[in-house]
Amino acid sequence: MTAMSEDASDGSAGDADDLTHTTEDGDVQMVDVGDKPDSERRAVAAGEIRLQSSTIEAIRADEVGKGDVLATARIGAIQAVKHTWETIPMCHQIPITNVDTEFALDEDRIELRVTVETTGKTGCEMEALEGVTTGLNVVWDMVKAVEKNDAGQYPETGIENVRVVSKEKDRI
User: Fold this and answer.
1) Number of C-alpha atoms within 13 angstroms, CB side, residue 30?
2) Is 92 annotated to bind ligand?
3) What is residue 34's predicted lDDT score, i.e. its pLDDT?
4) Of the listed 18, 100, 108, 141, which one is catalytic?
5) Is 4 annotated as a binding residue?
6) Strands 96-105 and 158-169
7) Is 63 within any annotated ligand binding site?
8) For residue 52, which of 25, 100, 103, 151 sits 20 to 30 Å off, Cα-Cα?
9) Which are the contacts of 155, defined by CB distance < 8 A and separation ≥ 6?
10) Annotated catalytic, 141?
């Protein structure tokens, strides 16, 4: 896995000299952001979980046996955002100033968008991605009993299209 410098603003990955998570000897290291100025940062990530339409209807009607699916997923997403530094190696612990979660229910899927804001020395897109993936995993966990087929498999269930929608720095 490689990382590019946040200073590469043209969208290119750069060359080996731009790698920030390895030493000259190729050892993994945490990036030193100590000299960077604090700035306002915001990242939005999204993803979706594909479900049976009957499961979507049960969620809408709050008839899932484990409880309120979206409320529980929201809590899971927020907790994941706050603990990203503990699960992603080399990720800095950053001061989260705001987390917003937004669910959109369709006939056969739920989309989750997680917006994370911080004021600090590094971005928050990993936090937004962690919020999305955990929030969707919580949805799956809450509905797995009704999503399983007779063989105990999940042929219609899937987490898809997880992505960073936007990333902003120094926004006013």
Assistant:
1) 11
2) yes
3) 60
4) 141
5) no
6) unpaired
7) no
8) 100
9) 149
10) yes
Q: Residue 82 is encoded by which pair of tokens?
A: 């706050």
- How confident is the model at residue 9, as a pLDDT? 40
Q: Three-state DSSP class for 15?
A: coil
Q: Judge contact between 121 and 38, C-beta under 8 A.
A: yes
Give the residue ranges of the chain where pLDDT is below 50: 1-12, 16, 171-172
What is the number of H-type helices and E-type strands within the chain?
A: 4, 4
Q: How far apart are CA 58 and CA 150, in angstroms?
A: 19
CA–CA distance, 53 with 59 (Å, rounded to integer): 10
What residue type is 14 in one-letter code? Answer: G
Is residue 74 within 8 A of residue 101, CB to CB? The reply is yes
Q: What is the DSSP string of 133-166?
A: HHHHHHHHHHHHHHH--TTS--TT-EEEEEEEEE
Domains located in the chain, CATH noted: 1-31 (no CATH), 37-169 (3.30.70.640)
CA dist., res. 34 & res. 85, Å (int)? 17
- Residues written for the chain: 172
Type of residue found at 137 = N
